[in-house]
Amino acid sequence: MRERVIKLAKPALIITAVGFAYLLFHELTGLALFCPYRKFLHVYCPGCGVSRMFFHLAHFEFAEAFSSNCLVFCLLPIAVIGVIFHGYRYIRYGNGSLYKAEKIALYILIGVLIAFGIARNIWQVDWLIP
């Protein structure tokens, strides 16, 4: 069980460290990564505004975070709970495979993100645009 904890902790710590480094870089310079879809294709991808959303969340500015990317903002708690549940199951029982319901939920999530990406480019509604 200890080996599984270490196996999950290493990538989690790396992702967290990279996230904090990016946040610190943004705070010090005001620069952020650009969206290649927006820059080169002039369309909004489903992830446009996610960096801004996390910057606002880091400052506890929830209304601004929601307006940056409303779908990801709403799905974030569900995703965090899913990752924690899956990590716990892996650590406790050594089972790293997804249940059938989890796979279906993941496919539905991908479909919703694709539909959101299409909708935010078809309907120029203020709350869809980051």
Structure description:
The longest helix has 28 residues, at 2-29. The protein has 130 residues and is mainly α. The chain is 75% helix and 0% strand. It is globular, with a radius of gyration of 17 Å. The chain has a domain at 33-122. The termini are far apart. It contains 6 helices and no strands.
Would you summarize the structure shown here?
The chain has helices spanning about 1-30, 35-40, 50-60, 60-70, 70-95, 100-120. It is mostly helical and about 130 residues long.
Rg, Cα atoms, Å: 17 Å
- Alpha-carbon distance between the two ends: 43 Å
Secondary-structure-derived class: mainly alpha
Helix content: over 70%
Topology:
Elements: H1 2-29, H2 36-41, H3 50-58, H4 62-68, H5 70-93, H6 100-122
Helix pairs in contact: 3-4, 4-5
Q: Which properties best describe this structure?
A:
130 residues; mainly alpha; 0% strand
